């Protein structure tokens, strides 16, 4: 389920008051803009089983979680990850700390507190997880709460996966969205510092999913590079070639087949593009990363049940 909370959606005559009321009801926060007339805020909230994700962007303001509002939040861990701008925050039992891009703040939501956002714009990603889910893994020591920590590689894996999930969630079937929520739980456990057993479980699900996505993104950026190989990608990501191959084996394919299929799709798009009509098939094959034309032709026909020249001819007929 998605909830959009945008200041621009309210009547300009009472925009700030109406937005403040909605934010208090949905986010359990009292928001005081630094400047009423200039205040702008947008929050996109995704609600999944035992997981809430929110991407918030707003101008300068102060947010207050009173004791009464804190009591309505439940026993959750709220992870703050600033993407732009930053904030100062003080929760009962903790010090006033500053958190900006490259850092993470761990917020026990049942604790009252106040945060101040300065500057022209702040953009923060929030991840809310029941504390029981991560505490059972020994991943949330009390000393880690109400504190700022560095954005480690483990946190970056979580951040990358959550941002992708937040964007793609409207297009996912419910059962797949639930599966993805479990990935987020596992990645959070890893980032927070799990017990050995919990870490091994997470490595088998969430971390593998995030690793695979990061590897695929890197392949896409370097799809036509002659140096592209499992060994080259593994070195860039600080993992072993064997682990790279295992990630793709888990999807029922291989690294080589995945790369070849992505390159074949690229070649087919170019063969169907009228602006590429003057280029030879061999030139297109080379530009898509294929060095052996006969292998390209055989693989292309097997993938699409048509030769490259037949695909080009069909595209011309459809003009």
TrEMBL record:
InterPro entries in alphabetical order: AraC-bd_2, AraC_XylS_family_regulators, Homeodomain-like_sf, HTH_AraC, HTH_AraC-typ_CS, Tscrpt_reg_AraC-type_HTH
Pfam family membership, one = HTH_18
List keywords of the entry alphabetically. DNA-binding, Transcription, Transcription regulation
Q: What SMART domains does this protein's entry cite?
A: HTH_ARAC (SM00342)
Outline the extent of the HTH araC/xylS-type domain: 213-314
- Keyword Transcription regulation assigned to the entry: answer is yes
Q: Which GO terms describe its molecular function?
A: DNA-binding transcription factor activity; sequence-specific DNA binding
Q: Does the keyword Transcription apply?
A: yes
Extract the PANTHER family matched here. Answer: ARAC SUBFAMILY, HTH-TYPE TRANSCRIPTIONAL ACTIVATOR RHAS-RELATED
Q: Know the name of this protein?
A: AraC family transcriptional regulator
State the organism named in the record: Tepidamorphus gemmatus
